[in-house]
Amino acid sequence: MLQEDRLLIGRGSEDAFILPKMANRHGLICGATGTGKTITLKVMAESFSDLGVPVFLADVKGDLSGCVKRGVRSDALDRRLEHLGLDPDAFEYKSFPVRFWDVFGQSGHPVRTTVSEMGASLLARLLDLTDVQAGVLNIVFRVADDKGWLLIDLKDLRSMVAYVSEHSAEFIQDYGNVSKQSAGAIQRALLQLEDAGGTLFFGEPDIQISDWMTCDEKGRGYLNILHCEKLYQSPLLYSTFLLWLLAELFEQLPEVGDPEKPKLVFFFDEAHLLFKGAPRALVDKVEQVVKLIRSKGVGVYFITQQPSDIPDAVLAQLGNRVQHALRAYTPAEQKAIRAAAQSFRANPDFDTKEAITNLGTGEALVSFLDEKGRPNVVQQATILPPQSMMGSIDEDRRQAEIHASDIYGKYDVAVDNESAYEILHAQKQTEAEETARLQAEKEAQKQKELEEKAAEKARKEKEKEEKAKEKAKQAKKKNSAAHKVANSAVNAVGRELGRSLTRGLLGTLKKLF
Questions:
Q1: Is 17 helix (H, G, I), strand (E, B) or coil?
Q2: pTM
Q3: Contact (Cβ atoms closer than 8 angstroms) between residue 150 and residue 156
Q4: CA 243 to each of CA 48, 289, 313, 376, 464: distance values in angstroms, whole numbers, following the listed order
């Protein structure tokens, strides 16, 4: 809650305030499961909202959605307020302006980005590629960029990987070798990403960061709650997505130096997933972003179980700290507690290491930055209760809030603009049509040649037939003349024989014999 334009987070021997001007120096909320980290996060988020600072927070367990409803007074809360020295009758329970978001578009407005915007480095981590495969993916992105082909969704990237692999001989001189084995491994990883919901995350319309940095009509910053219950089941997708958000904020926002209050506060729950298994180069990039993003007016608050979950170089940038209880059952846990205690500026009034193990639920060790940016001496404090409802809302209320939002419809319907897939598909279709045309011309030419051969054969057959007819005619003519001569000779002989016989009869019968 706000008190004299400062964020009152808890009370102990002294009040624990976060100064608005120091809120962009980042922070850390640590503690074992069930010790009150979520309540601390809610109290901080509500306070920032009242200050007019928009907030983005990942809701892993689904219990941050209650911010949209007014808190309910109870005897337990009254006792807690009395313990804090606050008047239960004067404590204001209220709701806060909320926008729900969901990568899968089910429990909030869809959150999308394009493949090109995410870039090869983050995508290689998301796909868990080897160094060689990551190098091939870099070549794929470079070829797409040089050709001016946008990679919007996963089908664009899959088409592009196939294209580069098929034409690898053309690119080897300018970009390097692209082995079919590496291309195949990338394609298989992309199929797994599709099964994990990547087809919903990559696409358009892509998110505009400005929609997370708005206030309501009362000047209160919106709480942008990312529903992560399903997303968290794919830890690599979850952590890569949030890392991409940090990178987007860093790239898009202008330098503002040290503003009087942050432009946006980003809460990263289950922060250990960001660094688990991450290559050194990526950790270095996160460290660089965390160092520099505060000058963009953005405060980043990591929520995890132990400070040791965060690399030392990043941990050193987190000035505002809340440490809930840790349990020391094993030597490793005892070591983690010693490290957590050493990260605070010591208080001579108590043993920090011992205090960490004795904290109750809702209690914490706190150290926030003073007006000169120095860590205050660690104090033991009880965290204030949130002003909004604790717990989650039902699905009907969630859907009602989504449909009533002033940005409803802006992201809720996906569009498929022309990009690498469509270009390559059209190119293949053109090539197929050209191949079909050439094949048709070849077939037509072949058919023409066959027809010409058939015509020539028919002509020759006809000539042969005509010659045969002529020959037969000539032969017939010859036969007719010979026959005529023969007939004349026969007739002549006949006449002669006739005359001989006649003379014999008329003369004497004996001459016949």
A1: strand
A2: 0.81
A3: yes
A4: 22, 10, 17, 29, 88
